[in-house]
Amino acid sequence: MVLICRPQTGLRVKSTTNTLSCVITAKVHRKSVGEHTLVAETPKTSGKTSGKILSILKQEKHLTIPELARLIGVTERSIERNIRKLQDQGLLRRIGPAKGGYWEVIK
After folding, report:
1. Which of 30, 66, 68, 94 has a CA 20 to 30 Å removed from the CA of 2?
2. pTM of the entire predicted model
């Protein structure tokens, strides 16, 4: 049995040989560089977007989702999600068809 140790690299190699085979086992011991923390990439909505949607739609009822997205500075998908949440909470209602209808803020 042969043991090779290199402390500067953290490498230890243990080798065993016999007439039939050769087995090498290597363990690498790494130094800890610090604690890793994961940061959530998708923050939860704080309700600011919903509040902006309601205040804008109180003033201009005929705005479309793309127009709201441009005014507020978020994606159309974000507007759709927030509008659905507001409708579920009973704070917003769509009157009329998708084209030609308007939004009614309920409060």
Report:
1. 30
2. 0.56
